Protein 1
Amino acid sequence: MPKQVFIHAPYDVRFDEVSPIDRPLGDYELLVRTEMTALSPGTETRIYSGQDIERFAYRVSYPFALGYNNVGRVTAVGRKVQDYQPGQRVFTRMSYVSEYIVAERIAGEAGLSPSANIPASYDVIAPIPEDVPSEQAVFTHLFMLGFNALHRGQYRFGENVAVIGLGIVGLGAVCMARLAGARVAAIGNATSRLGVARSLGADEVWLTGDDNLSRAEAFGGEAGIDLVIVCADAWTALRTAIDISRRNTRLAVLAFPGVGQGSPPFSPFEPADFYNRSLSYIAVSWTPSDDYPPEYQRFTVKRVYRYLLDLMSRRRIDPSPVLTHRFPIAGIKDAFELALSKDKTAIGIVFDW
């Protein structure tokens, strides 16, 4: 029987049997068997613990189907599927489920014509090149968040970028910023993660609580820091971002500031900081999932996934340093407990199916 992971209540995670897929595939559908998934250590651990979930950007109710980092293998395709074939590996945003159906496109929907200015409907699927290990491909979405932060933060080639928070999302942002030609400073709260940031391309690394301003001034030189990418939820991370900013610095916020911490001990909009220095706060949210033609929306989720997987294939990026722990899917509760333990050596956690 197929199985799927559900959180039934805080700290109650189960690997439940679900109904088998017993219907014929539609013309544009693929049947996929999951081979590997990756934990999203921020979002999913909070849903597991129930911590401050009323402040999430979307509604959470139990039972909750977890997961959106899925590497699977196509086992069957509909008769009109064009880009996929049985045996091929794909990356999707499907949950922790052993077998599922996704659609290359939805028959009859507008947007199938490349000249249309409205999006096609489809499930987000990206083919994985044969030379990209599943252990790298499974982090595609989490690395895409750093890509988005650079775009939303209006990064320009040659700028100085600081990344605050060195979980898996922050480390992905370090990798993306380095690839984009930035000088990159990585700021975290664990010595073990500074070395990982170095291996992903950071030029300078330091611990939060060091003299952040003097370190930032030495790093930025005359130009200062142009863009700060905030990847930690703690109010202290946002305070650090403000402190190291110069006039007109842009703060791209990937985190959920203050989740689980109550009201801030300072005002993020203090006139001496926000107004006098003309700081820009930029929320980094989703890349469009719909398949708009590129002349209307150049970067959709599907295009960014395929771009990042191509970079992995060409050895331009390698997410391998973030992989620290591996579990069988039946051990998912142990993985959650590890993620909640605040063991800073735990970064990227994957599950074998």
Protein 2
Amino acid sequence: MFGIPNVGADICGFELETTEELCTRWMQLGAFYPFMRNHNDLGHRDQDPAVFSWTAQQIMKQALLMRYSLAPFWYTLHHQAAMTSRTLVQPLHF
């Protein structure tokens, strides 16, 4: 919408503490962002998958595997965006 091809959010938030449920769901959503990263501010509790329960880790692992399976698709979209100056994800209302 704004011509920025590579967008995404800091998975699980950046400044405040997160919950296991929020981080798990956000990781599932983030698997479909063009740009995905999980990181936070210094001085806050770690929020990488290893600090959560085994169940949450397995769910996050599946989300990351889904993302990796989409790598060829994302690669193609990045190439097209670079060649055409369009965004990777097109809005549904155009």
Protein 3
Amino acid sequence: MAKVERAGRVFIDWSQNNAAKTTIAPYSLRGRARPTAAAPRTWDELDDPELQHLLLGEVLERVERIGDPLDALGYHAGARASDDGPLTAYIAKRSAARTPEPVPANPLGATAAPGELPRFVIQEHHASRLHWDLRLERGGVLVSWAVPRGIPHSTTRNNLAVMTEDHPLEYAAFAGTIPRGEYGAGTMTIWDDGRYELEKWRDDEIIFTLDGSPGGPLGRVRLVLIRTDGEGEKSTWLLHRMKTDAAGRPQPDGTPVEASEQADASSAADGEPAEVEPSRNRNSTSGSHTPVGAAEVEPSRKRTSTSGSHTPVGAAEVEPSRNRNSTSGSHTPSPAAGAAATTEFADPGPASVSASASEVNERVNRKFITEIERDSTETSGPPGDPHSGDPHAAAPHAGYAPPTPAQLRPMLATHASAGIARERSRRWGDDAWAEVKWDGVRAIGIWDGRRLHLRARSGNDITAKYPELTRVDARLGPQPCVLDGEIVALDARGRPSFPRLQSRMNLSKPREIEREMPRTPVHWFLFDVLSHSGDDTARLALDERRHILEAVAMDAIDPIVVPPVFDDVDDALEASHRFGLEGVMVKNPAAPYRRGVRSEDWLKVKHSRTQEVVVGGIRPGHRGRAHEIGSLLVGIPDGDAIRYAGRVGSGFSDAALAKLRELLEPLRTDTDPFVGVPALDASDALWVRPEIVGEVEFAEFTPGGILRQARWRGLRPDKSPAEVQRED
């Protein structure tokens, strides 16, 4: 109805999308003693010039006289045809002709019986990975989570739960075998079911009490689900057994969940996707931008176990034993395992991994127990950490021993093409491990239990450069640990920008840093953990270290992010290219962390070619820029010499040129530091000592080793000339 045709009328566009709510008087022309009520109107009524608001009594009389005008449309499944609803995703993944699961024709859900407590069901699902599905009746559907380790039997455990698509209410009675080739293929049984009492249902927290079937394994238990990452399907949650019941009485521990004697994960087709595909991102909500690779990309990380039992996917707790030689899904930590604490942090060879992994992981598992019900107002301790030189820093815990420089040397990646990375990934196992390559600077973090200290790849202390990370409680847990990650600055589109980071990484004066912080905030993207609670986690396989990392960073401040992991190299490359990111890192999930080693267990695949270079000369500009830097002469170390690699004359901002003048002027020398400089390039060069490292983007190397179409990207103060090597 056009606005000009609505003279003297009010047109109300009203939507009610929750059957549990009642809306009275959504609009009134003026205040009245009696409220009007919302009711469906017919098209004939809308054309009536005498159309009036209805009082509540008039609505009831009207229903008795003409019935409900919406009856003809229907609302619930089986009545109204619809292409969209809470069950849309469920129906799209299944065909009634190929699976015994209930597949409704309509995605709108059903109506619960009035006056009854809502239902729940826990189903044991032997898919490609064993897990337990927790389903709670809500809004005409079963809201569902996949729980790799089942319902926690103790208040000291927190189990990962990954939200899946909503299921129809009929699924509460389903048990059977889903055929190979179908979504979630494998055997499913009902572990327990019953009714539940709801205390709270919020977007990020659900508190409820399950009342299982008589004689069932569950009993009566009060639980809480806390969302830790993402939204909707594939979001990750913690499932925690509360210390007390709803009346405040202590809750006893339950029986540990064990797999039943039936078809296991091998019953699913080899390579079939499991129903659990959690995203690995933490959404940043800091004052800057949401990182593209962490918020918009929704990769999954699927890990398989060599045993027939389950392998947990994720973040909430540390699996007691997940090394590749494990033959059992359950593991009871040995009392003796904690007696021999790991004190050596030497680079482990591959042979040492299986021998030490389970022992270290047992200790970490016992030490890392998250308290959901802890006092959130706990302070971070007294000021004055003597190790940091920062008067605002908190003192470390008693007995804390800082790691040595040798323990902080980062593992380095080898450059590879996409084809080599695909082939190597297939050799490593069924599932790939691919991470986004972030366009920032490497930073090793030392968390002493109260404050974070940062070291550059070179070993230099960069703690004072990033106060938003180091002058606050980073909330990385009560135990000391050493973490590996990349510091990045995001552009207006949420993408890491190395040129933007230059305005932070090159500052050293506190006043300049404080002034630039609001303009250029940084994030610390974590991807590894080197030690935890005094245990050398570097000896563990990467997928085991990932569990510990996610648990450590579970409650971290917003600028500290654990980005996603992809299980397909091509998906990772496509996503990183689509969002304009630098490339991907393809890693061996079974490999240890080899400190200070450039290893082929980590492969970096870039979309555009970049190269670190050593600056050894300046060519002045021409005409009006005769006293300015026109271009830089750069080289790449080759044995004991630095081989000339060409000139770089574009990509400089005014601030970058000013910084280069400041750094290079004191390094002026009469000696050419390069091998192989053409006479034309050397004719008017001003030489400098080769102490400054930068990074360029380029098209290709010529046969003579010269960079074609080189463009300046920025300084690399975190690198020394000795670390620079040609990226073939």
Protein 4
Amino acid sequence: MQVPNKRALASWLYIATTGASGLLLLVVAARYLTPDVAGMWFTLQATTSFVMLAELGLGYTLMREVAYSKAGGADPRLRGTHSKTVLKFLSLSLTAATFIGAIIWYYFTKNQSSTNASTQYSLSHLWLLYLPTALLNLIAIPIRSLLEGSGLLHLERSSAIFSHFIQTLFILLAAMIFGDPALMCLSTGLAALVNIAALVGIAVWRKSSLVLSGRPSLSFRSLLSASLDFFSVSLGAALTKFAFAPLLAVNVGAAELAPVFFVIKIFAALANAVAVLVNSERARLATLYAEARHVEVKELYRRIMRKSLVSSAALGIIASIVLVYSPAILAGKAYEVHWWVLALLCIDFILNNCASVSASFVNSCNRNPFKLSVFSSGLLSVGLLLVLMPAIGGEAAVLAQLLSGAMTSYWYNNYQAAKTLAEFKHG
């Protein structure tokens, strides 16, 4: 009974540190940085999501492969196949990430050449400092996937808790003492290095527990084929959720949109905490599916959905109330927003969290059906943003884009989950 208790404690501590560290960093950035610098910082964080698309779903693919191998038993003739897949993962993802990062840098350079009033840095300068952080985080993904698929999620969570503490400490010092966004970017990179070192240490320590054997090593072609579905889904989701950041930062200005950026990032920090409920069980879902225990898969999926719905509603309502009545305490009067903005973002928060549960369930069952529809939804939401921005203003256009994307994602992911459950009955 002792090990499950440790695993539960690690998950709950991870939820707490994920939410708390994200919220603390946002509040400190808002209070100790001018609105234009804080807006630039929020923009960098949101834009990084596009670089993380270079993962191409490979982290999820690797986790699923390892979990399936764990369920089927190790074959000594295939020893080291997952390690070879990890190396291919790194070469593919880092190449793609660098390419995407270069495109974003070119966009910032062409559209925002002048520096901001209160800092000597432009977005293009800061992006060059922040991009390596995303590349380092990509290196950590396959190590985390290997630990997770091998049943060592509680150790991966413990490493993440330590990493959150280090990252929060470094960025707090950079913001509070120096108020320098460049130092904040460098601090995130240093924290990413600490996280990688911790993950590698755990992998070496528990090497005997890692599932390194299984099906033959995936070729580059197989990896691309398996992950392009995830890429198009991730790109569609990122366009829906974060395209507003680089577009509005260069067209409207980071300072003017800092308040709504601030609130969106608060809900994003809370969403990361709720996502732990899904991520903690996705390897279990994949293992049960590989063992054809469909009844247990269905029960586990519904249990995760209930937890996500209850926790999302509770956190969303509490956050909205706090932001309505005490924005000045949290971040200063410059970050006050209307109550209806908070209400709409709370709805968006709940819909997206529930949609991610269904997507995780379907993907754990070896189905990647989302690519064209979600990608199309992302493109449509960006088109909506560009059309509405000059007509109703940046803030209202962002809300319309986010809500349209959340409703589409919720409907389509749950539709695919229902189809998967129906196949269980016929299978």
